[in-house]
Amino acid sequence: MLTFYFHPTPNSMKVALFLKESGLDYELAPVDTLKGEQHQPAFRAINPNGKLPAIEDDGKRVFDSNAILLYLAEKHGKFLGKPEDRGELLSWLMFVATGLGPYSGQSVHFRTVAKDKSDYAANRYLREAQRHYKVLDDHLAGREFFVGDSYSIVDIAAWGWIDRVANVLGEGALDAYPNLKRWFDGVNARPAVAEARQIAKDVAFKSERDEAALRALFPSNYAETA
Questions:
Q1: Which residues of the chain have pLDDT under 50?
Q2: What is the pLDDT of residues 48-59, one digit of tens each?
Q3: Signed CA dihedral, 88, 94, 96, 98: sign only
Q4: Global model pTM greater than 0.85
Q5: How far apart, in whole angstroms, are the C-alpha atoms of residue 204 and residue 221?
Q6: What residue ranges define each of the domains in the chain, with the CATH number in brackets?
Q7: Contacts of 110 (CB under 8 A, 6+ apart)
Q8: What positions does the domain GST N-terminal occupy (predicted)?
Q9: What is the pLDDT of residues 147-187, one digit of tens each?
Q10: CA atoms within 13 A on the CB side of 92
Q11: Is 33 helix (H, G, I), strand (E, B) or coil?
């Protein structure tokens, strides 16, 4: 049995979309990060880094969203593209993992969360997020999908973050990237996306970002210095 540890964030939504696209059976295990459940020993045994998502597959743990996508795609032979496109697939998958995702997340953090706001940091991550969007937009010129001629885990991985463009770059920002917008609209119209959005509809996750939630989300900010 596959257990899916989930909180409704961009990285978790990638895995949710893969599961719905592939039709794999799974057990949902909600982890409320605003309540600090990711720091409990039982979950740290699944992901020592205390982040979502993670899976347990017949006793084997896999954590980090793109690692999970690659693991499940290889195990089940789904959404990997053609063998001759393997290098391209890995390159774009890592681009999402090391570029699009982290810079988008930091752009949101420094513009909306940071108490002692740094104009330099906010501008730095916003401009880098915009640059990553431009890289994706340029690549998609004349293409339906990111890799080859078929829908792959790269499209699934990128969708998780592009879906949050309003938070990352602002409302309507995707209009500045017409190729990326066309691609996103195509992926977003897939039936599995609507199913993924409902994956935890009956779970009442905490929504208030009070002091306890901030301590749970950003524990290193509250760590005592030596």
A1: 226
A2: 999 999 999 999
A3: negative
A4: yes
A5: 27
A6: 2-78+195-222 (3.40.30.10), 83-189 (1.20.1050.10)
A7: 117, 118, 121, 122, 124, 125
A8: 1-80
A9: 999 999 999 999 999 999 999 999 999 999 999 999 999 99
A10: 24
A11: helix
Tokens encoding 123:
């501008």
* Whole-number pLDDT of residue 226: 44
Q: Are 201 and 28 in contact (CB under 8 A)?
A: no
**Phi, psi (degrees; rounded to nearest 5) at 166:** -60, -35
Question: Is residue 100 within 8 Å of residue 160, measured between CB atoms?
Answer: no
Residue 69: partners with Cβ closer than 8 Å, 6 or more residues away: 14, 15, 18, 93, 153, 156, 157
Residues 138, 156: Cα–Cα separation, whole Å:
18
Tokens of 76: 């089940």
- Residue holding tokens 């049995």? 1
Q: How is residue 96 annotated by DSSP?
A: I
| Parallel, antiparallel or unpaired: strands 27-30 and 2-6 | parallel
Collapsed DSSP state (helix, strand, coil) of residue 12: helix
